[in-house]
Please model this.
Amino acid sequence: MEHRPRHERAGINALTAVIIVAASFLLLTCGGEKKAAAPPQPIVTVMEVAQKDVPVSFEYVAQTQSSHLVNIQARVSGFLDRRMYTEGALVKEGQVLFLMDAKPFQVQLDQARAALVKQEAALEMARLNLARTKPLTEQNALSQKDLDDATGHYQSAAAAVEQAKAEVETAKLNLSYTTITSPVTGVSSSAIQTDGTYISAQNSLLTTVAVLSPIWVNFSISENEMQRYRDELSRGLLRAPRDENYEIEIILVDGSVYPHSGRITFAEPSYSAQTGTFLLRATVENPKGLLRPNQYVRARLKGAIRPNAILLPQRAVQQGSKGHFVWVVGNDGKVEQRPVAVGQWHGYDWFISEGLRSGEQIVVDGGLTLRPGITVSVKPYDAGKGPGADGISQKEEAAKGGEQVKRVLKVLH
Model:
């Protein structure tokens, strides 16, 4: 073992003492700093759970359809003379749309009238012959056969007159069919056939006219949605309007609400085999023609109510590995993590179907840095300040919470 001089051992002991004193002072200083820099109680905004009846609506993608789409077709064969309307314009009931060449049909009418005059002359001759035959037969000047023949000729002539009259009416109808008019008031489409085309049974479709008011709005509900709707009704989570007479509000492509609402007037009796959806049709007044056929809109069903419902702002509900949860502040100011069952969204809020009771205090803002059992300082939630209790967004609140976490970790280290 090496022996050091006494003065060298004394220097080492002095240096060791200085290091021990310095370390003790440093520990005391750090401990004091940690104690002095202990984080304050988190400040959170809370709201009280309240159950109330909440009107709810359901939205579906819908498509408009004319309530009366008429195919304008030629009823006789012939040459198309000219189009009499402006394509795409609104046409009135009875307005002339097309004219066909009427000359051949006028000739047929004249022929039918001449045939009628001929048959009427034959009828008069048969009547006079019958009138002469009857008294002669009574005087036995003519046989009964002569009377029967005269009677038969008269009846045949009378029938021929009626047939001729029918042919005249047929000719009149055919002539009237050369003037093609609109049977309804609506918006016209383009002309399918051009002027001068020979129209027959194979190309008789000329155009279409669609009635705009009222207009139909068709939308479909899936089988899952129908089942969920029935389940909520049976469980008392949803209350439908009387006789399920929903008001149908139309949402246009720009998000604006169409000024006229409607009612459901038709429900398909079966599901679609291709899509598995259930078709519903609403009828809506469209006096100014703002809605056009085949236009995509959204149908909003209004009138249902969720009784005794609990609504929470969406940012008050968080999601963990075990599902959705909220922070509940107890009477002692300590927070508790409470799992909840969430339902559908309602604007910026969320329906809570299970897990909460009326009167409990729920953390809305400031819950990102909480942990179970800590004591918090609370301030009331003001729903009128917008997305956050202090008018800040959820993203800004998250950034603020991240900075708080960084400060706490810096102090602890």
Remarks:
- Residues 102-177 form a domain with the Helix Hairpins fold (CATH 1.10.287.470).
